[in-house]
Amino acid sequence: MSSSKKTAVVTGASSGIGAVYADRLAARGHDLILVARRADRLAALSDKLSTAYGTRVQVLAADLENDADVARVESVLASDASVSVLVNNAGLARLRPLAQSSAGDSLSQVSLNITALTRLTQAVLPGFVARNEGAIINIASVLAVHSLPISAVYSGSKAYVLAFTRGLQAELANTGVKVQVVLPASTATEIWSEGISGIPLSALDQKAVMSAENLVDAALAGFDSGEAITWPSVADENLWSTYDAARSALFAATQVGVPAPRYRKA
Description:
alpha/beta, 7-stranded parallel beta sheet
């Protein structure tokens, strides 16, 4: 990730986590392609980073819930051989009970959190594999492993990101392509302040809210140390290894071909 004048593509780059990733990657010497809906925000960030780091910044205004816009970004990822990093950060949370949600809200989360992420990853991957180098960073959530009464769709979409990334990591284990999944807890971004999620930032326990800067710096430290799965706010890393070992044991226990004794008639 420190190679000179390679290009990093960051989605959801106009604010919050994406904007901090753009700053940190520019500081590491990357040129940038910044993707988000708000062209004015992207232009301002481009000017700031170009001035601060001498970075070449391309702005790509795109709504990743829109098929044609996703296709435009796919084309760049598939054709630009300078791209060495893809940060799939763009995401959406609509936190309310499913019965009180519109189908549009649910499908928007699926479209952005799952479909766009998958398409962009699939677009960039053949070039990475052919060059035997590259990095994909997928931003999931701690709710990938925990569902709340208001997070059925969001948790489901982030569980997909975790499972998708782990499968991809296994596929690419013997290559030079690195894939990391990051699982943030509550992070201070505009997803709360704009009321998009349905829950204001002020309603959260402020002691449990991490800044976007701390989140990204922790995630990049995890990347630098070779972590495949990064939990920025979890101090005891044994919690994850224990959880993952239990998951592996549970899967192994399914491979028997007969119903468990408790389901058999006496």
